[in-house]
Design goal:
Layout: H1 23-32, E1 47-48, H2 60-66, H3 77-90, E2 94-98, H4 101-108, E3 119-122, H5 127-135, E4 139-142, H6 163-173, E5 178-184, H7 197-210, E6 214-217, H8 221-231, H9 240-248, E7 253-257, E8 268-272, H10 276-289, H11 300-312, H12 316-335, E9 348-352, H13 353-356, H14 366-378, E10 380-381, E11 383-385, H15 387-390, E12 406-410, H16 418-433, E13 441-445, E14 456-459
Parallel strand pairs: 1-10, 3-4, 3-5, 5-6, 6-7
Antiparallel strand pairs: 2-8, 7-8, 9-12, 11-12, 13-14
Helix pairs in contact: 1-14, 2-11, 3-11, 4-5, 4-10, 6-7, 8-9, 12-16, 14-16
Bound molecules: pyridoxal-5'-phosphate.
Pyridoxal-5'-phosphate binds next to helix 4 and helix 5.
Length: 461
C-alpha cells in the first residue's frame, strides 16, 4: 500500500466468512433475479457494494453499549442517552427517533405541505426523499450546480446548490409555494459529493430571505464536514464537530438515516431546532407510523449503539481512512481509464456508465447493464443510480432522462480491506475493456413506486 493511503485505524476482532461462487452459477442466478441484483441472495455475492446503508461494522464500544439497552416502551434510558448525544451534536432542542431515514421523512415532510402545488427544492433529492415528497402531494425540484453533471471535470464541491437557479425557481413558483429547501449532505445521488460551507450559507440565506424552512437531509453529515475541513479555505483548524455544528445552526430541521454516518445497522433521527409547534405535530404523527416518541421504531439497544456510533462517526482518524478507501478505488479505476465522477466523494465511487456504454439509450438503462456485467465478471454487487432509479415523471409518466447514469460502488464502513477493493477494481476494469458487448435492458415487470428495488428485466437482444 503506498503512502497516499493510510492503513486501517483498527484491527479485526471478529470475522464473517465470504466466498466467491463460480461464474457459470452467477450467470444463472442473475437471470433468475430478473437482471436485478437487488433480488440476489447476499450469500451469492462475493463483495457487496450495493449500499453503505446499515452495512457497516460496529465497534467494540457499540457492541458493549448494546448490552445496556433499556427496552421500556416509554421513557427508556437509552432514549435519553441518545437524545443527549443528538442535542449535543446539533444544538437542537427536540429529538425523536425513527426506524430509519425514510421513517423520518414520512412523518416530517408532509408537515410542510399545507396546500396543493407545493414543491421542495434540494441540491438533489435522494430517491426515498423524492418518493415522500411526492406521496405528500408535492413536487421535488433538483437544483445542483452544472459541474455536477460533468463527471470528468474537477470541482471540490460538486454537491453545491446552483444559487442563481435557486432564486429563479423561488421567484417563478412564488415563495409561498416552496414547502422547504432540503440540504442533502453529502449529495448521495451525484456521487457522495460534498457541499461547501460557503454554498450552504448562501443557500440558507436565500431561504431565510423568503421565509422558507431549511431541512438538512444529513445521512452523511460527518463525511461532508470532513470534506469541508480538507477542501475549503479556513476550516483546517476546525474539528469535525465544530464544522457540523456550523451547518446545523443554518437549518430548522435535521433528518438522518443513521444507517450511514450513525455507524449502525438500523435507525433514524429527527431533530428540530426550536419550532415547538412542529415538534408537537411530528410527535403526534410518529405514533401511528413509527412508534411512541421515545422509541420511534428503534429498540433500546439500537439507540445505545447509535449514541456511540454518532460520536465515532465524527472521529477524524476514522473519516480519513473511510474517505481514503473511496479515493483508492477511484484512483485504481482512473489509472485504467475508467470514467468516474471525479473527484471521488464520501461513500462510493460512481462509475460513469453513460460514457462507458454510449450505445445504450437512457431508457434501456446503461448503468444497470454495467452493474450486471460486473456481478457476472467478479461476483461484486453494485447498484444502478440513473434512469432506472429515477423512475417516471409523475406528470407525463415518461422515463426520466438524466446525464448521470452511474454504477455506484458503495463502500460499507469499516467492513472491507484494500485487498477487497483491488478485486473490485480489477473486475470493473475487465468490464470496461469489454464494454462494446454491453446490452440494454427492458422491463418484464415494472412496479409503480421505487421500481428499482423489485423490477424484473431482460437484456435486449
Ligand atoms: C439513505 C438516505 C435516505 C433514506 O434513509 P433510509 O435509512 O435508507 O430510509 C435519505 N436521504 C439520504 C441522502 C440517504 O442517503
Amino acid at each position: 500500500m503506498n503512502q497516499n493511503y493510510k492503513a486501517e485505524p483498527y484491527r479485526i476482532k471478529m470475522v464473517e466468512p465470504i466466498r466467491e461462487i463460480p461464474k457459470t452459477k452467477r450467470i444463472k442466478l442473475l437471470k433468475n433475479a430478473g437482471y436485478n441484483p437487488f433480488a440476489l441472495k447476499s450469500e451469492d455475492v462475493y463483495i457487496d457494494l450495493l449500499t453503505d446503508s446499515g452495512t457497516g461494522a460496529m465497534s467494540q464500544a457499540q457492541w458493549g453499549a448494546l448490552m445496556q439497552g433499556d427496552e421500556a416502551y416509554a421513557g427508556s434510558r437509552s432514549f435519553y442517552r441518545l437524545e443527549s448525544v443528538v442535542k449535543h451534536i446539533t444544538n437542537y432542542q427536540y429529538f425523536i427517533p425513527a426506524h430509519q431515514g425514510r421513517g423520518a421523512e414520512q412523518v416530517v415532510l408532509p408537515q410542510f405541505v399545507h396546500k396543493k402545488g407545493m414543491s421542495f427544492i434540494s441540491n438533489m433529492h435522494f430517491d426515498t426523499t423524492r418518493a415522500h415528497v411526492e406521496l405528500a402531494g408535492a413536487r421535488a425540484i433538483d437544483c445542483v450546480i452544472d459541474e455536477c453533471f460533468d463527471t470528468a471535470k474537477h470541482h471540490p464541491f460538486k454537491g453545491n446548490f446552483n444559487l442563481e437557479k435557486l432564486k429563479r425557481i423561488i421567484e417563478d413558483k412564488g415563495s409561498d409555494n416552496i414547502a422547504g429547501i432540503i440540504l442533502t449532505i453529502t449529495n448521495n445521488s451525484a456521487g457522495g459529493q460534498p457541499v461547501s460551507m460557503e454554498n450552504l450559507e448562501a443557500t440558507a440565506k436565500i431561504a431565510r430571505s423568503y421565509g422558507i424552512p431549511v431541512i438538512i437531509d444529513g445521512a452523511r453529515f460527518s463525511e461532508n464536514a470532513y470534506f469541508v475541513k480538507m477542501r475549503e479555505e479556513g476550516y483546517q483548524d476546525h474539528s469535525i464537530l465544530e464544522i457540523a455544528q456550523e451547518v446545523f445552526a443554518m437549518a430548522d430541521v435535521f433528518l438522518m438515516s443513521a444507517k450511514k454516518d450513525g455507524l449502525v445497522n438500523m435507525g433514524g433521527i429527527i431533530a428540530i431546532k426550536d419550532n415547538e409547534q412542529l415538534f408537537k405535530k411530528v410527535q403526534g404523527a410518529i405514533v401511528p407510523m413509527e412508534g411512541f416518541p421515545t422509541y420511534g421504531g428503534m429498540s433500546g439497544r439500537d439507540m445505545e449503539a447509535l449514541a456511540v456510533g454518532l460520536q465515532e462517526g465524527l472521529e477524524e482518524d476514522y473519516l480519513r481512512h473511510r474517505i481514503d478507501q473511496v479515493r483508492y478505488l477511484g484512483d485504481q479505476l482512473r489509472e485504467a481509464g475508467v470514467p468516474i465522477q471525479y473527484p471521488t466523494g464520501g461513500h462510493a465511487v460512481f462509475v460513469d456508465a453513460k460514457a462507458i456504454a454510449p450505445h445504450i439509450p437512457y431508457d434501456q438503462f446503461p448503468a444497470q447493464s454495467v452493474v450486471n456485467a460486473l456481478y457476472i465478471e467478479s461476483g461484486v454487487r453494485a447498484v444502478e443510480i440513473g434512469s432506472l432509479l429515477l423512475g417516471r415523471d409523475p406528470d407525463t409518466n415518461e422515463n426520466i432522462d438524466t446525464p448521470l447514469q452511474f454504477m455506484r460502488l458503495t463502500i460499507p464502513r469499516r467492513t472491507y480491506t484494500y485487498n477487497h477493493l483491488k478485486v473490485v477494481a480489477d473486475g470493473v476494469i475487465k468490464v470496461f475493456n469489454d464494454r462494446k458487448k454491453l446490452k440494454g435492458l427492458t422491463f418484464t415487470y415494472e412496479p409503480q413506486i421505487l421500481r428499482h428495488f423489485t423490477a424484473k428485466m431482460q437484456p435486449i437482444k
